[in-house]
Description:
There is one protein chain. By secondary structure, the protein is an all-alpha fold. The protein has a domain at 84-184 and 219-367: MetI-like (MetI-like fold, Orthogonal Bundle). The chain is built from 18 helices and no strands. It has helices at residues 2-13, 28-57, 79-85, 90-124, 132-144, 147-157, 163-170, 185-192, 200-203, 212-215, 221-247, 251-259, 264-275, 277-292, 296-301, 313-322, 327-351, 355-361. The longest helix is centred in the first third of the chain and has 35 residues, at 90-124. The radius of gyration is 30 Å and the shape is globular. The protein starts with a helix and ends in an 11-residue tail after the last helix.
Amino acid sequence: MATDTLAAPGTASAGPPRRRTGGIRSNENLAGWLFVAPVIVILGLFLLLPILMALWVSLTDWNGQGSPFTGDVPFVGGDNYSRLFTDDGLARRDFMTAIRNNIYYVALVVPVQTALALGLALVVNNRLLKGKGFFRSAFYFPSVTSSVAVSVVFLFLFANSGAVNRLLGLLGVDGPEWFADGRGVLHLVLGAFGLDAPPAALTSGGPFGLSWWEWLSGPSVAMMSIICLVIWTTSGTFMLMYLAALQNVPVALDEAGMLDGASRWQRFRYVTLPLLKPTTFLVVTLGLIGSWQVFDQVYVMSQGDPAKTTLTPAYLSYRTAFRDFDYGSGAAISFVLFLIIILLTLFQRRLMADRDGNRRGRWWRRRVPEGS
Length: 372
C-alpha cells in the first residue's frame, strides 16, 4: 500500500510531453513569407493585375479614351470573342488569316530550329574540333544581337537588288520580290506543274471564312524570308541548351555501346538521343511559345503585308488595339492566343511523355492473370 501510495503522485504527474516552443526553426514559415512578400507584391502589381485589367478590357468596347473601368464604357461580354470565330466579317477573316500564317510559321520554324540547334551542338561538342570557343561564339552571336537590327539587315539582303537575288542570279535563277510577293509557296510549286487555277472544290467553301485553297496556300515568299531570319537568330540559344545536356551524358555509356559493336548512328539513336529528351522538350516548348508570339520581325520587315500573308495574331492584336483603337478586340485576340499556347504546350507535353511510364500506369492494358 505504501508503495502504491508513493507511486501514485508520479503516475498522476506523468502525461504527454510538452512541445517545445521557440527555437531557431519555430518561425521559418513566417520568415519565408516575409522574404518572398516583396516579389509577390511586385508580380501581383505589375503582372497579375494588368492581366486581370486586360481581361476586363476584352469584355468591353473601350476605344482608349478615358478609363476602361468607368460606367461610360459599354460592356459587350463575349461579343469580342464571338466575332473572331462565328460572325462573318473582316475581324474573323483577318484573325483566321493570321492563324493560318502562324500555323505554317510554327510548322517550319520549330522543327528546323530544333534540328539545327542539335546539329550545331553535336558539332561543337566534338572532342576533335579545334577552336570550339570560336564556333560557340559564332553560332550564339545572332541570338544576342538586337532582333530589330537583324531584321533591318535582312531587309537589305532580301531586297529586289539585294545580295540574295544577286547570288541567285549567279546561279541562273531569277529571284522573286521577297516582300512584295504574297503568293503561297505551295501554290508556286503547283504552278510549276501547270496547276495555276485552283480546283472549284477548294474555292467554293472552307472553315472560318477562308476557302480551302487559302488554307492550303502555304507560307508566302515574304513569310519564308522571316522564317529564315528567325531560324538563324534562335538556333544559337537552343544550341547552348543541347550543348549543356550533351556534356552531362556519361561517356561510359557511349563507350559501352562502342564495345558492344554499335555504330555511331546507333549510339546516337539509342543512347544519346533518349538522354536528351528533357532538353528536347524544353527546346520545343520554348520554340513553340516564341513562334506563336512572333511580333518584332513582322513589325519591322513587313507589318503584315503583302496581302496580309505575314500577319500574325500578336501583330494583329497590336494593330487592332493601337491603330484601330479597338482595345476590346485587341485584348480578346491576345487572350485567345494565350489559350492556344497553353493548349499546344499541354498537348506537346502529353505527346512527349514517357510512353513506358504511361503503359505501366494504364492497368486496363496489362491485366494480371488470375492465380498468379
